[in-house]
Design a protein that fits this description.
CATH class of chain A: Mainly Alpha
Radius of gyration of chain A: 18 Å
Oligomer: heterodimer
Number of strands of chain A: 2
Order of helices and strands of chain A: HHHEEHHHHHH
Number of helices of chain B: 3
Helix content of chain A: over 70%
Largest sheet of chain B: none
Order of helices and strands of chain B: HEHH
Helix content of chain B: 55-70%
Distance between the termini of chain B: 39 Å
Structural class of chain A: mainly alpha
Distance between the termini of chain A: 34 Å
Strand content of chain A: under 5%
CATH topology of chain A: Arp2/3 complex 21 kDa subunit ARPC3
């Protein structure tokens, strides 16, 4: 095995430990059995190419740099901590942040497809939240749609010469909120009928997910800025390697 | 006021906003039990399509609230353990980096 491959395996072990050590309790994702089989399959297939892209992206970015591997493990661990924090919201129900913002800013959106999927699998298997049948749909919203839109906003904010803290805040805020908007859309697509139109159904699910999520997304944005500042003061050089345009 | 003091004040203020975002809903909705949004979504599914039946069940679920909160604590504690191990590792790497930066 080449040194670079060995390093890749080491990185996967670090991430695996970070992940295995954590048993998430709650996810405000689509519950087991609540999407018809056809939709489950469709979202799963749609997610697959992003997963493959993510695996290669992580492999290339981590090769041979132990500090970057540590950053990857930390991004995964950050995801786990934040998805454990069920926070009360103004609507009177609880939800939790996704934590994908930090990894998106550090590693780009493709890598989050892998980290997010690992989080979701453990939530589904150990804690009966989310679900194996709805894994594809939940992975698509949290590990693909959220990170990619967050990344787009981050990139646009940087183009507009926004300060680093504002770009990071907007990226984490949008990634969090958009994840749940996609969840609402997925439910509405699968659940509307003769009496309830798609738009009415969409409005209801958006009311539950997006509005509940709003204050949480702000909180996640603030936390992510604080963590990002700490990380960037510790390894500015590695951040330049990961994101040369900075 | 030097830069360090300003940074500390900034961090404390930011954390205060996060805490306020959590505490205010509790004070504003005195009646609510703050159930999960996913449960609420399940109810809406059944409201929209009365004949819909969830076609799969979780393979395993925690027996009760106590076990669930145990797993919740384990997740948060170990997740932050890994995270802050990383912070310590990076801080030490920075502090004890060889002067001639041999790589």
């Amino acid at each position: 095995m080449k040194q670079s491959q060995k390093n890749t395996v080491k990185a996967s072990v670090i991430v695996a430990i970070a992940v295995l050590c954590t048993t998430p309790v709650s996810a405000m994702h689509i519950a087991e059995g609540f999407l018809p089989p056809m939709w489950c399959a469709a979202w799963g297939v749609l997610f697959l190419p992003f997963l493959v892209w993510g695996i290669f992206s992580i492999k290339n970015k981590c090769a041979g740099n132990s500090k970057i591997k540590m950053l990857l493990a930390m991004s995964g661990a950050y995801c786990f901590v934040l998805s454990a924090l069920k926070m009360p919201s103004f609507t009177g129900s609880s939800s939790h942040p996704t934590g994908v913002g930090l990894g998106t800013v550090l590693f780009g959106p493709a890598a989050m497809a892998v980290l997010g999927l690992i989080v979701l699998i453990f939530q589904a298997l150990l804690l009966a939240h989310g679900g194996i049948t709805t894994l594809g749909a939940n992975a698509f919203s949290m590990a693909v749609a959220g990170p990619f839109v967050g990344w787009g906003v981050y990139w646009a904010a940087k183009k507009c010469k926004a300060p680093a803290w504002l770009s990071v805040f907007l990226a984490a805020f949008t990634a969090d909120l958009f994840t749940y908007m996609v969840t609402a859309t997925q439910l509405a697509l699968a659940h509307h009928g003769a009496e309830v139109t798609f738009l009415q159904s969409w409005g209801k699910f958006m009311g539950i997910f997006a509005i509940t999520q709003l204050p949480l997304a702000i909180a996640e944005g603030i936390l992510t800025v604080l963590v990002y500042r700490m990380v960037s003061s510790l390894c500015a050089e590695e951040l330049r390697i990961l994101n040369p345009a900075r | 006021m030097n830069r360090l003091t300003k940074n500390v004040i900034g961090v404390v203020l930011a954390l205060a906003v996060v805490v306020a975002l959590c505490v205010l809903p509790l004070m504003l909705n005195k009646e609510s039990e703050f159930g999960g949004a996913d449960g609420a979504a399940g109810d809406v599914v059944l409201e929209i399509q009365e004949d819909f039946e969830p076609w799969a069940e979780p393979m395993w679920s925690p027996p009760g609230g106590e076990t669930e909160s145990l797993l919740f604590c384990v997740q948060a504690a170990l997740g932050s353990g890994v995270f802050f191990f990383g912070v310590g590792y990076l801080a030490a790497m920075k502090k004890y980096k060889p002067k001639d930066a041999a790589k």
